[in-house]
Specification:
- The protein is of the alpha+beta class.
- It has 2 domains: 1-64 and 98-183, Methenyltetrahydromethanopterin Cyclohydrolase, Chain A, domain 1 (Roll), CATH 3.10.340.11; 186-327, Methenyltetrahydromethanopterin Cyclohydrolase, Chain A, domain 2 (2-Layer Sandwich).
- 36% of the residues lie in helices and 24% in strands.
- The chain has helices spanning 2-21, 23-26, 50-60, 89-97, 116-120, 125-128, 150-160, 177-184, 187-197, 221-235, 246-250, 268-275, 309-316, and strands spanning 29-32, 38-43, 65-74, 77-86, 101-105, 108-113, 138-143, 167-172, 205-213, 237-242, 290-295, 301-305.
- The strands form 2 sheets. A 6-stranded mixed beta sheet has the order 1-2-8-7-6-5, sandwiched between helices.
- α3 packs across α8, α4 packs across α9 and α10 packs across α12 (268-275).
């Protein structure tokens, strides 16, 4: 694990370098803030691209997972789909990819992902798992509708124990092509986070793979957030290879998919409008639609949950049953 914790910073920096070097081709913009921190706009003011989103997602994973883009039929439409494979899921998904760091400075707000989280170790999960690390350079990836200023980079670098010129910030808005792509690459991560919340031993998970449709963008920021969440809740699936007793899987199986929530079956946009607060929504909802466990120890396969195409069609604005906010 220590080797992986060290390498994820190096790998994320390498991926950020690739984004910067190919900036014109990927339709991203790279600048350096006055304090020396590097800022890569992958989808706030910049147009971005699928490839920028794919690299954004791999940087979120600390380079410890692979993301590919394919297509998926949905009703009468064909949509892009993000597929992810991870061989060190505890480190890659929980120690790096999980968007658990709230970055707030003045009016600026973003959700932070990536290996820099493990330098700051600002979240309670770093007390539960030994995922804190040290590195001379690192990357924090931001889901945000605004670009961070130098004071934001200064705060992040200070919390991470880095000089500002050792920090790269990569930003993309939820509704952007890169933003929607990187969110769709969280099928395995959301499964692991749900398992962590219900007490399953994440150290027993040795590999993961998943797929999720990339939600269509929307000019209304709240509807864009609704679509990306619906993609996970009703359209994503994850397969986890584990080493444990079958009883440990059976004890949590039906609680893992999003269908375990009392709020399952409703569009995320409607839930948000009703509650008025993201954190007031039932936390048990945030997980893939379908989850499969493959137990290496016994050879048994367990699965729970189901995809809900009808809700995705409504959410994405496809066909006669489209939601009123669709295109």
């Amino acid at each position: 694990m220590n080797e992986a914790l060290s390498r994820m910073h190096e790998e994320a920096v390498r991926i950020a370098d690739a984004l910067a070097e190919r900036a014109p081709l990927l339709r991203v913009e790279t600048t350096h803030l006055p304090n020396g921190a590097r800022l890569i706009d992958a989808g706030v003011k910049a147009r971005g691209s699928h490839e920028a989103g794919r690299l954004f997602a791999e940087a979120c994973l600390g380079g410890l997972g692979r993301v590919t883009i394919a297509t998926r039929a949905l009703g009468s439409a064909v949509l892009p789909e993000a597929r992810v494979t991870v061989d060190l899921p505890l480190v890659a998904c929980i120690g790096s990819q999980y968007a658990g760091w709230k970055i707030q400075k003045g009016k600026f707000f973003a959700m932070g992902s990536g290996p820099a989280r493990s330098l700051a170790a600002a979240e309670p999960l770093f007390e539960r798992y030994r995922l804190k690390s040290h590195a001379p350079r690192s990357v924090l990836l931001l889901e945000t509708g605004a670009l961070p200023a130098a004071e934001v980079a200064e705060m992040v670098a200070s919390r991470c124990g880095l000089p500002p010129d050792g920090l790269t910030l990569v930003a993309a808005a939820t509704a952007s092509l890169a933003g929607s792509t990187q969110i769709a690459a969280r099928s395995v991560e959301t499964a692991l986070h749900k398992l962590m919340e219900i007490g399953f031993d994440l150290a027993s998970i040795v590999a993961g793979a998943g797929a999720c449709p990339i939600a269509p963008g929307h000019p209304d920021a709240l509807r864009a957030i609704g679509r990306t969440n619906d993609a996970i809740l009703y359209g994503s699936e994850a397969s986890l290879w584990v080493r444990c007793d079958d009883g440990a899987i059976e004890a949590v199986l039906e609680r893992v998919p999003s269908s375990a929530s009392r709020e399952h079956g409703r569009l995320f946009y409607d839930l948000f409008k009703e509650h008025g607060d993201f954190y007031a929504i039932d936390p048990m909802l945030f997980s893939p639609a379908r989850v499969t466990f493959v137990n290496e120890t016994t050879g048994r396969v367990f699965s729970a949950g189901t995809l809900n195409e009808e809700l995705l069609l409504r959410s994405f604005g496809i066909g006669a049953g489209a939601d009123a906010g669709g295109v």
